[in-house]
Write a structure and sequence with these properties.
Elements (H helix, E strand, L loop, with lengths): L3 E4 L5 E4 L1 E4 L1 H7 L8 E6 L10 H6 L1 E6 L8 H13 L5 E4 L7 H15 L5 E7 L6 H6 L6 E5 L4 E2 L1 H16 L5 E7 L2 E3 L6 E3 L3 H4 L2 E4 L12 E3 L4 E3 L1 H6 L7 E2 L4 E2 H5 L5 H19 L6 H8 L2 H21 L9 H12 L4 H16 L6 H12 L11
Length: 395
């Protein structure tokens, strides 16, 4: 995927889309930092934040997150939390986190407080809301001057289609509004239900649809049966499931140097635990390396079919927003001219075609200095050559 940079008010740069790393992630990887990344430094209410190494702070942006997700809303606790962040030299953001059962009215109070914070600090402000908040997106857009980043809190370990559709509906709505805000997804699941609850897919898809994400930090119930992720199809399967999909008991899995049979019959679970960590890293690397051309084939091949349309739609919206709607190249055009050009761009349909058409349009404007919208539309129509249309309606 084409990287982009988010420059914070203090000069630090973050490569987007960004997985937020927790201190336990860095410890497991035996590294002190991920350069140009975000350290998600979480604590519970009333507790101090874990100390962060100076080396880590110099290479990463630090997000100090007080977890109020099980705490009823309290303006006093909110203000105490944000005041600590404002005056701390150990964090680079001020986040207004969600509270348990947060209502639209309480989110409005948080927005009002964010407006007050804006006058007190230069730090980037993150407004976190429940993914299913009743606050409509237009109201968020109207209040967008109060925050720099919108964070959607998912908060489950195991994802389902209806939940993800709700998250994506909000993502698409925000992308289509006239505000250029980054969107983070918080406490997200990495596994989703396929045809049934028992049909589990490992689909870490939030790097494809948002600007940043952090996995759910709370412990969930473990599976009753031993299941392991198969990199071929991203399904989490029992031993029988592996054999039924073409694997052999004596097949050696090179990532751990053990056979399928040995992996499932590991008495102390250490090898299985190592395998799951390593395979997760492999899959995350595969997804991180996708680009506008390779993305679609991967999603169609690996993700469960019912999620494909949601992911492709959101990925494409992100691409249109990044490469066209908020690009400096097209800032010289009026809103109506951009609407006409975007309408023609959407006719390209698939993500790779949309990418190619925007790249071609950019070349026409930059290299050939064509500023006539009718001429540009004529060129786009000739390039499109088909009736396919990607509409801007919500999924």
């Amino acid at each position: 995927m084409q990287d982009k940079m988010l420059k914070l008010s203090n000069g630090k740069k973050i490569v987007l889309p960004c997985r937020m790393f927790q201190p336990t992630d860095l410890k497991r990887m035996e590294i002190d930092f991920v350069e140009n990344g975000i350290l998600f430094n979480r604590t519970d209410p009333g507790q101090d934040f874990p100390a962060v190494l100076n080396k880590t702070k110099s290479k990463m942006a630090v997000l100090n997150y007080c977890d109020f997700s099980t705490t009823p809303f309290s303006e006093q606790k909110l203000k105490e939390s944000t005041e600590k962040q404002i005056h701390s030299e150990d964090c680079d953001f001020v986040i207004l986190p969600i509270f348990k059962g947060e209502t639209a009215h309480q989110t409005r109070l948080k927005i009002k407080h964010a407006e007050e914070i804006r006058l007190l600090t230069d730090k980037n402000i993150i407004l976190e809301i429940p993914y299913n908040s009743e606050l409509n997106s237009q109201e968020l857009a109207n209040a967008s001057g109060a925050f720099d980043i919108l964070a959607l809190h998912y908060g489950v370990h195991y994802g389902h289609f209806k939940q993800l559709a709700c998250v994506i509906k909000r993502l698409v709505e925000i992308r289509q509004l006239p505000i250029n805000k980054k969107i983070f997804c918080m406490a997200v699941p990495l596994k989703f239900a396929g045809d049934s609850v028992e049909d589990v897919y490992y689909m870490p898809l939030f790097g494809l649809i948002s600007d940043g994400w952090v996995k759910n930090w709370k412990r969930g119930r473990g599976p009753q049966k031993i299941k392991l992720t198969d990199q071929r199809d991203l399904r989490c399967k029992t031993y029988t499931g592996w054999l039924e999909t073409g694997h052999m008991p004596n097949e050696i899995l090179m990532i751990v140097g053990r056979t399928v049979y040995e992996l499932f019959n590991d008495p102390d679970k250490l090898i299985r635990s190592e395998y799951e960590i390593l395979i997760a890293d492999e899959i995350l690397s595969e997804i991180r390396d996708l680009n506008e051309v390779t993305f679609e084939k991967y999603v169609y091949t690996k993700f469960h079919a019912k999620y494909v349309g949601l992911v492709i739609r959101t990925y494409t919206e992100n691409m249109i927003a990044r490469m066209f709607r908020w690009s400096e190249v097209f800032s010289r055009f009026s809103a109506e001219e951009k609407r006409l050009l975007e309408s023609e761009v959407r006719r390209a349909g698939t993500p790779s075609n949309v990418f190619g058409l925007i790249a071609y349009l950019t070349q026409c404007v930059v290299a050939e200095n064509i500023m006539s919208v009718p001429v540009l539309i004529q060129k786009l129509k000739a390039r499109n050559g088909g009736p396919t249309t990607l509409t801007s309606t919500n999924p």
